[in-house]
Amino acid sequence: MxxxxxxxxxxxxxxxxxxxGRPRTVPLTYFVEGDGIVLVASYGGDDRHPGxxxxxxxxxxVEVVQGRSRRALTARTATPEERARLWPTIVATYPGYAxxxxxxxxxxxxxxxx
Length: 114
What we know:
Blueprint: E1 4-5, E2 8-16, E3 23-29, E4 31-33, E5 36-40, H1 51-58, E6 61-66, E7 69-77, H2 80-93, H3 96-103, E8 110-113
Antiparallel strand pairs: 1-2, 2-3, 2-6, 4-5, 5-8, 6-7, 7-8
């Protein structure tokens, strides 16, 4: 079951492994944007994208568990315009993401689940 981490809601994201095809599940904090969910592919500020991000780029069909709710969604990387609009709210909610961005030269992708 999903819960909370550092005061933020947590969901379980299941992707298909891009090389194995096996289901891979990770707990992630998230933000609600309209009818969609926004994930931050920060990987703690590492210079590499997290594995789950590579997986959903290869196959955007994902499953999400929020509390007792389980749903199939489609993932996409936020456009640069969406990221510019969403990023200030994200770092205001959890300032750690600003520190992660400062650690890496890569723009940390935001992922929209619809």
